[in-house]
């Protein structure tokens, strides 16, 4: 599972950081850092985080490529 | 797509963010024909913003920054192969490996590469690096892991500043050399440039502005240090050349397209112009390599090195590639970007360099939490937030509606927010770092040329 966050859209509501703290972390008050390749045991947490994001900035999918 | 689905062959040159999102949009639009994606790098598409952040901090490996797909694109992928030329008559892309790819519609999304250090001998010294690709980031992260005694960052644009931030966070000594008066000044103007300079120094960066690196010193092929134009020298094990980007247009030299160091010129619908200024109907452009006219900025040709622009422009280009005249859409997205450095979240909407004045409308430089609003001739053209991202949407609306500048005071604004000051956007000739937004049009009241000609930037840097 691969993720990318549209950080133009992100407004640091931090719902993702509560729901999947191993994948999303606020660096300082507002700067979001995420782990693009999601560890296997975090898939469910990440799906919940993506669903909960108030600005729907998190894209979850298979890795793009051939 | 509306009406009958367009039939034909599509080739996309460039398999990074813009190329990928264009391919997905083509399929979303109902295009079912043969689709080929060509990428120079051998890697699957990946996300570049983490390269100067998570990867340098050692939180994410450079191989683990792949992009998620929105859908299957059912395409033929030619990765690790450069496109060498276009035959505009026969409508073929000629690849470096000799293969010919015939197309009915072509998308150019070849992006940019890092501007190299101008002295090729010094550039080859072990320890001299650039940062643009995942391979670059992997190398730099490895160097930082090894605990260099000092890192030299040449150029204090966003990339250079983020590298310096990562170094300090890892406890590494870092010197930043910038020919201009302050970091980020080329993108954000004088007031926030001065803020960025204070921020860097408060975090222990040895920031040297108004100087150039005159030479990189080495012994036995390894970097040992650098000399500055003011006569001073430092010792350093690693030097990162962050002088901005070069647009990948050389391969289009014989194509007859309006392609050059400023990018590939296209209309608001992403159709490329040829060298006579006539719009083509089968060649489209998107992403960092494109220059396009934007109505919010007096139809100046903008070239944006922004993640969001690559996505939005790719979507418009793809839609237009398979749509007929009246169904085509303009690319009108308001430019936006973000940067995180020294623990702060810096975000921008609009074009801050398209301004004559700036006002700190909310917060203050001292609090390190603020909204700076930029105006040009009495209307709002941009806003930059530091740790106040939630306000950007509001200012986007003001930019889109050409609201008057200075903005009216709201409840969240400083009571004394009326005091605007000149935005002090410098001529980029004076900077080490290349601008990430290039205004290449003409402003009548200023002699403003915000894109430098080859090979001036590197030569200027060494003067």
Automatic annotation (TrEMBL), chain A:
Cofactor(s) the record lists: [3Fe-4S] cluster
UniProt KW keywords: 3Fe-4S, Electron transport, Iron, Iron-sulfur, Metal-binding, Transport
InterPro entries: Fe-S_cluster_ET
Entries under Pfam families matching the protein: Fer4_15 (PF13459)
UniProt cross-references to Gene3D superfamilies, sorted A to Z: 3.30.70.20
GO molecular function, one term: 3 iron, 4 sulfur cluster binding
PANTHER family: FERREDOXIN
Protein name: Ferredoxin
Source organism (scientific name): Streptomyces scopuliridis RB72
Automatic annotation (TrEMBL), chain B:
InterPro entries xrefs: FAD-oxidoreductase/Apoptosis, FAD/NAD-bd_sf, FAD/NAD-binding_dom, FAD/NAD-linked_Rdtase_dimer_sf, Reductase_C
Top-level division of the source organism's lineage: Bacteria
Record keywords, A-Z: FAD, Flavoprotein, Oxidoreductase
Entry GO MF terms: oxidoreductase activity, acting on NAD(P)H
Record-annotated FAD/NAD(P)-binding domain positions: 9-314
Residues annotated as domain Reductase C-terminal: 337-411
Pfam families, alphabetized: Pyr_redox_2, Reductase_C
A GO term from the CC aspect: cytoplasm
Cofactor annotation: FAD
Region (Disordered) residue spans: 406-444
Name of this chain's protein: Ferredoxin reductase
Taxonomic lineage: Bacteria, Bacillati, Actinomycetota, Actinomycetes, Kitasatosporales
């Amino acid at each position: 599972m691969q993720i990318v966050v549209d950080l133009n859209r992100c407004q640091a509501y931090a719902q993702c950081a509560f729901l999947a703290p191993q994948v999303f972390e606020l660096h300082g008050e507002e700067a979001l850092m995420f782990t693009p390749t999601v560890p296997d045991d975090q898939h469910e947490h990440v799906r919940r985080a993506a669903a909960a994001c108030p600005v729907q900035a998190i894209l979850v999918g298979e890795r793009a490529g051939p | 797509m509306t009406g009958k689905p367009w039939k034909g062959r599509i080739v996309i040159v460039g398999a990074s963010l813009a190329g990928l999102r264009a391919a997905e949009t083509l399929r979303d639009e109902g295009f079912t024909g043969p689709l080929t994606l060509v990428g120079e790098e051998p890697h699957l598409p990946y996300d570049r913003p983490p390269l100067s952040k998570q990867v340098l901090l050692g939180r994410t490996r450079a191989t683990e920054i792949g992009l998620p797909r929105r859908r299957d694109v059912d395409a033929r992928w030619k990765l690790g192969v450069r496109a060498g030329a276009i035959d505009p008559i026969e409508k073929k892309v000629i690849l470096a490996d000799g293969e010919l790819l015939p197309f009915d519609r072509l998308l150019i999304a070849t992006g940019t590469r890092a501007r190299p250090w101008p002295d090729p001998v010094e550039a080859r010294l072990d320890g001299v690096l650039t940062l643009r690709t995942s391979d670059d980031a992997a190398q730099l992260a490895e160097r930082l892991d090894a605990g260099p005694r000092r890192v030299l960052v040449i150029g204090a644009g966003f990339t250079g500043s983020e590298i310096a931030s990562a170094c300090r966070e890892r406890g590494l000594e870092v010197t930043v050399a910038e020919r201009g008066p302050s970091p980020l000044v080329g993108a954000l103007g004088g007031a926030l440039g001065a803020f960025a300079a204070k921020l860097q120094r408060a975090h222990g960066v040895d920031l040297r502005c108004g100087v150039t690196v005159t030479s990189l010193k080495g012994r036995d092929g390894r970097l040992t240090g650098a000399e500055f134009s003011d006569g001073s020298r430092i010792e350093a094990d690693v030097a990162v050349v962050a002088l901005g980007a070069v647009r990948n247009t050389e391969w289009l030299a014989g194509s007859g397209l309006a392609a050059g160091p400023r990018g590939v010129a296209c209309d608001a619908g992403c159709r490329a112009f040829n060298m006579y200024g006539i719009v083509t109907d089968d060649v489209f452009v998107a992403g960092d390599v494109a220059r396009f006219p934007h109505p919010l900025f007096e139809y100046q040709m903008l070239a944006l090195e922004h993640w969001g622009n690559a996505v939005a422009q790719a979507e418009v280009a793809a839609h237009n590639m398979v749509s007929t005249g009246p169904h085509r859409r303009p690319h009108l997205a308001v430019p936006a970007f973000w940067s995180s450095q020294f623990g702060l979240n810096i975000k921008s909407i609009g074009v801050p360099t398209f301004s004559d004045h700036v006002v700190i409308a909310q917060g203050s430089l001292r609090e390190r939490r603020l909204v700076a609003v930029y105006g040009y001739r009495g209307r709002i053209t941009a806003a930059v937030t530091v740790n106040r991202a939630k306000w950007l949407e509001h200012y986007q609306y003001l930019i889109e509606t050409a609201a008057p500048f200075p903005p009216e005071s709201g409840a969240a604004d400083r009571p004394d927010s009326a005091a605007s000051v000149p935005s002090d956007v410098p001529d980029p000739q004076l900077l080490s770092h290349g601008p990430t937004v290039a205004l290449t049009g003409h402003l009548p009241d200023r002699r403003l040329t915000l894109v430098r000609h080859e090979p001036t930037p590197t030569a200027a840097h060494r003067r």
